[in-house]
Amino acid sequence: MDAEQLVIAIKDSEQQIEKNVEQLKRLESQLNDLLSCNDKDDAAALVIPACETEAENTREWERLAKEQEQTLIASKYSLNKCEEHLRYLPSQCASYVGIHENTQLIRVGDMEPKLVACMNVDNELYMIVQRRSDGSVNFNRSWTEYREGFGDLNGEFFIGLNMLHQLTMRRQHKLLILLTDENNWSLKARYNNFVVGGESKGYELKELGTFDGNVGDALSYNKGMKFSTYDNDNDKIRKNCGSTYNGWWHNQCTYCNLNGNYPEHIFWLYRNYRYALKTVVMLIRPVK
């Protein structure tokens, strides 16, 4: 059973349990109405025959109630098995031989299970945390939206600052950024210790580690900066860089902007050369 089927199975089990409980309540109410006939006094003798007629159905209702009870027990068992499976979900993308990209269900700490996108790059499995490709998703989002994440895992999306924090606080992660510029050049930037702080610290870009790549280190300018959005300004200048360039770890704005409006504000600037970008993929994986 894959991740999406598991989520559907859990929801179906919960809905079936609710239906069974409601039906049991209705049957119990009907049974109580019938049994109340035995409490009527002689003045109500005229209605007793009718009650006796209805009472003939009591045995059938009891049989149905038992069937519903067995169905309820089976549904609870299925739900418990699903919950048991969820407890053992991986906290990272798990290896799948021969697959370049897929979606997987993970669980990080006490967070709710979350469906994430995974990609094989040079025989290493990464989790995709951000992707830009065609401008189909608006990245001019609020603080809350950047915190929770948004978009389509099969297209453009941002995984969410809270998820980045939960992942990188527990274990050292490396960050890989894959870029394609307007001339279709393939560019890479790697950092070996990517750490995002918690919300109380403004989801600060706490660490990046050492840099490696063929595009120049433009992101280190943002190290130590809190995240900024149009409704939460944490940069170092009077104007709000988050209003102009969308959500990012802005300093005095930025030398690289991967969440900007597509395509005019997506760029990587190094030594006065500005790469205008067509595609961006940000990925992370634990350091072995």
UniProtKB/TrEMBL annotation:
InterPro entries: Fibrinogen-like_C, Fibrinogen_a/b/g_C_1, Fibrinogen_a/b/g_C_dom, Fibrinogen_C-term_domain
GO CC entries: extracellular space
Record domain Fibrinogen C-terminal: where: 84-288
Pfam families reported for this sequence: Fibrinogen_C
Coiled coil (UniProt feature): none
Protein name (Swiss-Prot/TrEMBL): Angiopoietin-related protein 1-like
Organism: Drosophila hydei
